[in-house]
Each structure stands twice: as C-alpha cells, then as structure tokens.
Amino acid sequence: MKTSKYRLQFALGVMAAAIILGVSGFPASGICAEPSAGISISSEETAVLEAARKYFDAEVARDLPTVYRCLAPSSAYCASHDYEAFLAEANTSPVRIVEYKIVRIAHIRNNDDLKGFPLVEKFAYVEVDVVVHYKDKNEKADVNFGFTFIKERGKWYKG
C-alpha cells in the first residue's frame, strides 16, 4: 500500500521538518475542537495552544522568521543552528506541512530535570494531525504526530 510504504519516510520527514522547519496547518489553520460545555481549559493550556497555533500557522504560511522565533532558544537545534543555517535547511527541504489540526494539549508538567534542561520551566505534549507534501515526489501523506512544547522564561516555544 502506497501510504504504508511512505509511513516511515514520512515520520522521518516530519521529524526533520519539526526540527528544521516545524510544521504547518489544515485549511482551517490553528483550529482545534473547542472544549465542550462545562469543560474549561487552564490558562497554561491556553498559552500552549496559542504558541502551537502561532508556530503551525507560520509553517503553513512559510513565514520562516516567525518559525525560527517559535523554536525554543535552549533547544539543541537552536544551539547548533543560527538563523542563516536554519534558512538554508528550510529552503532545501522538500517537506512541507500544508495542513494541520491540533487534536489535543496534554501532559503539561514541570521540568523535573533542571540539570539536563536548566532553562526549561515546563513541558507540554501537543498532538497534531498534519498533512505533509513532499515536493520532490509531489505526494501528500496524512499523519498524527506528537510535538513537545517547552516553557522558558514564562513563554511557550516549540521544543
């Protein structure tokens, strides 16, 4: 089956895109299900959702300066890639996330490993359905992927 043939390649491509570029969104970019009546979301969940939408909307729009600003300053990627290196990778990558839907925000937790991650206050898991376009093959694939967002100095970033 064509879809399963590219599942591993897609997962690797998405991970590379997430690290290099981040990801983009579904036609209704940044929209996720609203909480049901009587269910409220915390201010922390709201902040993570806003950060995720900003990041994914920038990916969809190919607003690379915003994508880079959404990446966690303390991340291994940012430590090894300045903006120019990021642009070079982003512009040569054939992977584009063309749609997204944030499925859920979960597992918001404090950083219990301050030795390993001294600048990180909190971690959050963001589950996202994405549609990836492989420009080199002119093919699209649907995937559900989990992304880590981290809070540094009071602000949420793509990890």
Question: How would you describe this structure to a colleague?
Answer:
- The chain has 159 residues and is of the alpha+beta class.
- It has one domain (2-158): Nuclear Transport Factor 2, Chain: A, CATH 3.10.450.50.
- Helix content is 37%, strand content 31%.
- The protein contains six helices and four strands.
- It has helices at residues 2-5, 7-20, 43-61, 64-70, 76-80, 83-92; strands at 95-110, 120-134, 139-152, 155-158.
- It has a four-stranded antiparallel beta sheet.
- A hairpin with a 2-residue loop joins strand 3 (139-152) and strand 4.
- Helix 3 runs antiparallel to helix 4 (64-70).
- It is globular.
- Mean pLDDT is 82; it is low at 1-39.
Give me the secondary-structure topology.
Blueprint: H1 2-5, H2 7-20, H3 43-61, H4 64-70, H5 76-80, H6 83-92, E1 95-110, E2 120-134, E3 139-152, E4 155-158
Antiparallel strand pairs: 1-2, 2-3, 3-4
Helix pairs in contact: 3-4
The structural class is: alpha+beta
Strand order of the largest sheet: 1-2-3-4
User: Mind telling me the CATH class?
Assistant: Alpha Beta
What is the CATH T-level topology? Nuclear Transport Factor 2, Chain: A
Number of helices: 6
